[in-house]
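Much of what follows relies on a compact textual record of a protein's fold. An example makes this concrete, so a full record is given next.
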Amino acid sequence: MGNLKSGCADNGIGKSKSVYEKSIHEAFVKAWNQIVENRDEYIQEWKENMKGENALLAFRSKQMMELTNSKPMKRISLSLVGKVLDHCILYDDRICFILLDGTEITVEIKNKR
């Protein structure tokens, strides 16, 4: 049996469900790989953030540029998650990851053990 993790208590849509930890990990890998594979679409915004007055956002944007300059993940890296994930919102069939640089990416979630 996998470990169940509860979603956000109230995501504005109604009561959330429990999801297996493995499913959340797989969804994060999928989301991260989409960012890595489409990195060029994010670069300009990260560069603009680095020129802005918000030092923390500039740092996070620089960090994302460095971290996404890699190959797609095959398995979850909890170290990476700790560096980039702010929070997530769980919906019935998808999960939205909100990263520390402000990037939001939503992927389908399959709840499996």
Residues 6 and 18 are 4 Å apart (CA to CA). Residues 21-37 form the longest helix (17 residues).
